[in-house]
């Protein structure tokens, strides 16, 4: 049996390259100062979808919500083997928090026939890990989070191993399902040369100055689809600022420094006491 | 995150500096393939963009995926299972799978077979990066010449059967030439090819030292004319690795452990003839070998680059006598010589590839036919010129790069000192991997024999004259004078050798080729120093004025100056040695080496 996969991806600032210049005075990230990249764990999610397609056959659709510039991650998904890419872009999406984002994405996923929805565990800019699970809730489907290995897929039954920090669980569930995938799950493939040469010219309508260009691209299969909230038939009160209850209370720049030091004698009782102390204050255990 | 394309300024500089548009136009035959494949480029600008995007991908794959597996590949090696099948080291299998998924296993094959139709220059840049990540993997990635040979000489039916499989990375190949008694002397090949009543061909006999002999598609050279000894009795065949092909052993080697070296026994194996009978060695294998030699030169570049980087890093962080050892004159001198030798090798290799791509492009243009008589004549002249040039430059590149990578690998261990001799650092592995490069696909001595014909036969003279006439920046005038003086000395020596006979030429072949190579590289560095490319590259920490970067152009001026100044006395000394007429090697061998050692 073949499977229809939808992969939800995000374009993020490359937070690994944060330096002094890339921080605003209020402690937020200056996105303009950092290169925009494919969120790393979303690449793991895409890789898992492509592996499912390689093994069982099927179809991989990639969706992202963002500004027109986010089409770059869609092209990268096409280079790697995605069959279809969709940009969800609309001014009314601006300022969406995780709740609004997962609502909008769930509306988009509903527009496609699907068996498995895949997301990265979390995006490196917000690190909330909320959008995947919330989208599953809104779609009313089961979810397996923190997937580190797909163990079995047969008919409409899936078995996956999820990482639970200091161990793992094997979870079996029925399709349709949403998986959030962690970086240990696989090593994402690089772009395929032939697809790179072909899809480097793929564009969304938002990236084109001239409507006539869109027609020409469409004929060559190089027009990336673009959906707005009207097309998604989304309820606007759940979108953008109106749909986002999250309020940022305060942003703090945390610098870790040693405040006090303690010498521990290299004896068994002293070490036991140190371990006990660390357990009590939840540093370990 | 490592990317072996993005972190290599010299590769990126050369690809900006060289005229890729001309190469792309020849390779894409006037950009006529857009109907064959939806990914074929429509113009030179697009082709160049494709080259760079794909190199970026290969660079990423090499840095992130392949390189971290190389130590394990070296430790694990390949396994010959009792059933006669060969298991690659896990890292090799995984890397081949990743390269296949990246669609780069048919880099130079035509679009219509699913290939990328890339010029040799770009494929060579990719091969260097893959080799830097894992040298033995190159022996499989870099065997794309097998598919190219099929494409160049086999029937359409054989092409249709195999080439799409190569492009998709579903099969790998082997060039099955060497035998126990036919190493450098391939004319002595004994494996038999014979026909049954229906005219079907079969192979029988033993081949040895076959790189990737466990591959699925084997190109086998065999004696099809039993009554004819020498090269004209040999033809080239292709066969599948079916039940009649037995891997009898895997060699236990000094280095390149990830590359399986097989002894093969063909037990009446069905096969198909490539092209025409009797042209196996003289035409097809010679073409195959030329491609393979460029591949080994690229592999050498990759190993040299890899080990240099370890030494460079170590010299900056290791402190002795209260300073990082790079502050010590002897160490910094070694590092500079290593770095310049690497850039010298790359300059020569890329220039060779440019010549090879031009030669092939011109041939293809002639095959398509031209209406205009004058143009036809011009193409014929160009073709003749480039054929002579590549016949000289290809063995020069293979010789220079492979010897260079051994020197660099040796010195890298020296920079690391005792640590370099230990397995804690990869330099000992790079040195083991490097050692084969001066041996296989023709030893350095054989490369010299091939190249010296060009040096003494007019090709070098014409080419050096052409290089001398190019336009260079005015500030390089004194270097060009030194090069002109060196050229005069070389050809004085050539004239002497011609008088003294062929034996004498072979005796001093290495000196002649070394000088010619140094002069060519000297001009190529001057050409790079005259570049229009505006590109900055980082300086090492510690520049006097706190400067952080330098333009590639300024840097190449410094390199050209040092290189030309340091090679000039060597060129002079060699010319003196050659013109001394010393024939002691012939006359005094018996006295100088003494008898074969015997037990007392």
Topology diagram in text:
The complex is a heterodimer of chains A (285) and B (600).
Chain A: E1 3-9, E2 11-13, E3 36-38, H1 40-56, E4 58-65, H2 71-80, E5 84-88, H3 98-110, E6 116-120, H4 131-139, E7 142-154, E8 157-163, E9 168-174, E10 177-181, H5 193-199, H6 211-219, E11 225-227, H7 229-232, H8 268-280
Parallel strand pairs in A: 1-4, 1-6, 4-5, 5-11, 6-10, 7-10
Antiparallel strand pairs in A: 2-3, 7-8, 8-9
Helix pairs in contact in A: 2-5, 3-4
Chain B: H1 9-17, H2 20-27, H3 44-66, H4 70-76, E1 79-80, E2 86-87, H5 90-101, H6 120-133, H7 135-141, H8 144-153, H9 156-167, E3 173-176, E4 192-195, E5 201-211, E6 217-223, E7 234-240, E8 245-250, E9 261-273, H10 280-317, E10 319-320, E11 323-324, H11 329-368, H12 373-416, H13 418-421, H14 427-435, H15 444-456, H16 459-469, H17 477-500, H18 502-507, H19 509-529, E12 536-538, E13 549-551, H20 552-579, H21 584-587, H22 589-593
Parallel strand pairs in B: 3-6
Antiparallel strand pairs in B: 1-2, 4-5, 5-9, 6-7, 7-9, 8-9, 10-11, 12-13
Helix pairs in contact in B: 2-3, 3-5, 3-6, 6-7, 6-10, 6-11, 8-9, 8-10, 10-11, 10-12, 10-14, 11-12, 11-19, 12-14, 12-15, 15-19, 16-19, 17-19, 17-20, 19-20
Can you give a write-up of this model?
The complex is a heterodimer of chains A (285) and B (600). Chain A has a nine-stranded mixed sheet, with helices on both faces. Chain A has a single domain, classed as 3-Layer(aba) Sandwich (Rossmann fold), CATH 3.40.50.620. Chain A contains eight helices and eleven strands. Chain A has 285 residues and is α/β, with parallel strands linked by helices. Chain A has helices at 40-56, 71-80, 98-110, 131-139, 193-199, 211-219, 229-232, 268-280, and strands at 3-9, 11-13, 36-38, 58-65, 84-88, 116-120, 142-154, 157-163, 168-174, 177-181, 225-227. In chain A, helix 2 runs antiparallel to helix 5 (193-199) and helix 3 (98-110) crosses helix 4. The mean pLDDT of chain A is 92. The longest helix of chain A has 17 residues, at 40-56. The radius of gyration of chain A is 22 Å and the shape is globular. The termini of chain A are far apart. Chain B is an alpha+beta fold and 600 residues long. Chain B folds into two domains: 9-168 and 281-437, Butyryl-CoA Dehydrogenase, subunit A, domain 3, CATH 1.20.140.10; 443-591, Four Helix Bundle (Hemerythrin (Met), subunit A). Helices cover 58% and strands 11% of the residues of chain B. In chain B, helix 2 packs across helix 3 (44-66), helix 6 (120-133) packs antiparallel against helix 11 and helix 17 packs parallel to helix 20 (552-579). The N and C termini of chain B lie far apart (61 Å). The mean pLDDT of chain B is 96. Classes of the chains: A alpha/beta (285), B alpha+beta (600). The interface between A and B is medium-sized, with 14 and 21 residues.
């Amino acid at each position: 049996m073949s499977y229809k996969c939808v992969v939800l991806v995000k374009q993020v600032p490359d937070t690994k390259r944060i330096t002094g210049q890339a921080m605003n005075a209020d402690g937020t990230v200056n996105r303009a100062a950092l290169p925009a990249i494919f969120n790393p764990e979303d690449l793991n999610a895409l890789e898992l979808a492509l592996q499912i397609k390689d093994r069982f056959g099927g179809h991989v659709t990639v969706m992202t919500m963002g500004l027109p510039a986010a089409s770059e991650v869609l092209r990268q998904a096409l280079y790697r083997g995605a069959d279809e890419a969709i940009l969800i872009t609309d001014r009314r999406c601006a300022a969406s928090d995780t709740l609004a984002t997962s609502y909008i994405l769930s509306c988009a996923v509903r527009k496609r026939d699907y068996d498995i929805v895949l997301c990265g565990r979390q995006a490196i800019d917000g690190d909330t890990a909320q959008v995947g699970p919330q989208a599953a809730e809104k779609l009313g489907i089961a979810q397996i989070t923190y997937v580190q290995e797909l163990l079995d897929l047969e008919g409409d039954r899936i078995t996956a191993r999820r990482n639970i920090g200091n161990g793992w669980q094997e979870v079996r569930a029925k399709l349709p399902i949403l998986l959030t995938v962690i970086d240990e799950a696989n090593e994402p493939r690089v772009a395929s040369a032939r697809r790179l040469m072909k899809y480097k010219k793929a564009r969304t309508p938002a990236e084109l100055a001239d409507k006539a260009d869109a027609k020409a691209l469409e004929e060559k299969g190089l027009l990336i689809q673009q959906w707005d909230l009207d097309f998604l038939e989304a309820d606007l009160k759940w979108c953008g600022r109106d749909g986002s209850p999250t309020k940022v209370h305060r942003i703090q720049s945390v610098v870790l420094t040693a405040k006090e030091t303690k010498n521990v004698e290299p004896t068994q009782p002293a070490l036991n006491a140190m371990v006990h102390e660390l357990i009590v204050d939840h540093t370990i255990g | 995150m490592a990317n072996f394309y993005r972190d290599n300024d010299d590769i990126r500089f050369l690809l900006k500096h060289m005229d890729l548009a001309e190469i792309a136009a020849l390779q894409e035959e006037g950009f006529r393939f857009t109907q064959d494949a939806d990914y074929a480029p429509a113009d030179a600008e697009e082709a160049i963009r494709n080259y760079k995007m794909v190199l970026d991908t290969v660079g990423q794959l090499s840095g992130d995926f392949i390189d971290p597996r190389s130590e394990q590949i070296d430790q694990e090696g390949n396994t010959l299972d009792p059933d006669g099948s060969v298991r690659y080291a896990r890292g090799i299998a995984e890397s081949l799978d990743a390269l296949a998924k990246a669609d780069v296993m048919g880099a130079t094959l035509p679009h219509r077979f699913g290939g990328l139709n890339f010029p040799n220059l770009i494929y060579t840049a990719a091969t260097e990066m893959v080799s830097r990540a894992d040298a033995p993997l190159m022996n499989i990635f870099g065997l794309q010449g097998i598919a190219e040979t099929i494409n160049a000489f086999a029937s359409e039916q054989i092409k249709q059967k195999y080439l799409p499989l190569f492009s998709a990375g579903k099969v790998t190949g082997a060039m099955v030439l060497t035998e126990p008694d036919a190493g450098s002397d391939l004319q002595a090949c004994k494996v038999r090819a014979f026909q049954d009543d229906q005219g079907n061909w079969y192979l029988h006999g033993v081949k040895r030292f076959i790189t990737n002999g466990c591959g699925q598609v084997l190109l086998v050279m065999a004696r099809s004319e039993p009554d004819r000894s020498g090269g004209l009795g040999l033809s080239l065949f292709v066969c599948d690795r079916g039940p009649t092909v037995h891997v009898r052993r895997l060699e236990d080697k000094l280095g390149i452990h990830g590359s399986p070296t097989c002894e093969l026994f063909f037990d009446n194996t069905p096969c198909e003839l490539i092209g025409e009978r009797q042209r196996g060695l003289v035409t097809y294998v010679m073409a195959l070998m030329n491609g393979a030699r460029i591949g080994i030169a690229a592999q050498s570049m990759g190993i040299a680059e890899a080990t240099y980087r370890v030494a460079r890093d170590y010299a900056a962080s290791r402190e002795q006598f209260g300073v990082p050892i790079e502050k010590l004159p002897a160490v910094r001198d070694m590092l500079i010589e290593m770095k310049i030798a690497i850039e010298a090798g790359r300059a020569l290799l890329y220039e060779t590839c440019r010549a090879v791509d031009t030669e092939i492009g011109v041939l293809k243009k002639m095959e398509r036919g031209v209406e205009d008589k004058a143009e036809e004549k011009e193409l014929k002249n160009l073709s003749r010129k480039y054929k002579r040039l590549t016949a000289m430059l290809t063995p020069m590149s293979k010789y220079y790069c492979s010897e260079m990578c051994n020197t660099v690998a040796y010195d890298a261990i020296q920079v690391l000192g005792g640590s370099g001799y230990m397995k804690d650092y990869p330099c000992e592995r790079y040195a083991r991997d490097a050692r084969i490069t001066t041996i296989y696909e023709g030893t350095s001595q054989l490369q010299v024999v091939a190249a010296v014909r060009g040096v003494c036969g007019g090709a070098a003279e014409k080419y050096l004259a052409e290089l001398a006439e190019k336009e260079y920046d005015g500030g390089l005038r004194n270097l060009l004078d030194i090069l002109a003086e060196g050229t005069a000395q070389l050809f004085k020596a050539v004239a002497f050798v011609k008088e003294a006979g062929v034996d004498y030429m072979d005796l001093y072949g290495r000196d002649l080729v070394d000088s010619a190579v140094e002069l060519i590289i000297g001009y190529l560095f001057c050409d790079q120093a005259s570049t229009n490319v505006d590109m900055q590259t980082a300086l090492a920490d510690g520049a006097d004025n706190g400067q952080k970067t330098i333009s590639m152009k300024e840097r190449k001026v410094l390199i050209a100056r040092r290189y030309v100044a340091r090679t000039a006395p060597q060129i002079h000394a060699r010319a003196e040695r050659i013109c001394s007429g010393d024939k002691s090697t012939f006359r005094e061998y018996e006295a100088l080496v003494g008898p074969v050692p015997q037990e007392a």
